Amino acid sequence: MNREKISRIAHTHHPIKAPLDDDSVRELLERGISRPDARVLDLGCGGGEWLLRALSAHPRLRAEGVDVSRDALGRADEAAVGLGVRDRLVLHHGSAADFAPTRPYDLVLSVGASHAFGGLVPTLAAAREHLAPGGRVLVGDGFWENEPSPEAVEMLGDFAGLATTVERVTADGWTPVHGHVSTRRELDDYEWTCWGTLAAWALDHPDEPDSGEALATAAARRLEWLRSYRDCFGFLCLVLRRTSD
Ligand SMILES: C[S@@+](CC[C@H](N)C(=O)[O-])C[C@H]1O[C@@H](n2cnc3c(N)ncnc32)[C@H](O)[C@@H]1O
Known about the structure:
Rossmann fold; binds S-adenosylmethionine; Methyltransf_12; methyltransferase; SAM-dependent_MTases_sf; CFA/CMAS; transferase
């Protein structure tokens, strides 16, 4: 069973691929969108869920998304048609680090995709390249809520604590104008929903060739979360402006 299929099924009921509920996503977008006709770019857009919500809420907004996953971009395309926003959305297949647009953006988003750039500060450097004067960045990344186990670092990458993470961002010339730390409920909902949905799919499709593997994957991933990182992983979103341009 390939990773795309696992991810597609697991995120059926949690299309935002990050531990945030719908109200948090709405609030972050509203803080990031500074004008009704904003041009918005999402680096690592996945299924385009952030952009689709921004486009639906703002009829004059235009959006572009970049992702390496054709499967995810295909779903973004289909959903945009269904919502009647396809004419205001451009999707680019390729590496976010190589994306070379011709015009700047009022809001650059990158949530849960910092690995594409090699970390949070390099993600901000890339976002800055694409930012219009006075523009905003909405970035989401992990941090360590508590001392991580070696397995957690191996699995998720080497984050810092919350204060150090924010200090690194401000030292890089950014001012947070809004922030959101995922709640225990958001973090738990995300994991229970993803692995529960995958497990339920397996139970509902016993005759599918992938059914047994899906059930085993859901069980393994749930256990990894509970044993290795539930007690130490946190998730932070920041809406940022340049402190001085
Ligand atoms: C955790 S998902 C987050 C998706 C989306 N931002 C969201 O919050 O729903 C990370 C996304 O980054 C994409 N990705 C990984 N490496 C990438 C790269 N080098 N360039 C562009 N996208 C990349 C993956 O395909 C995936 O869709």
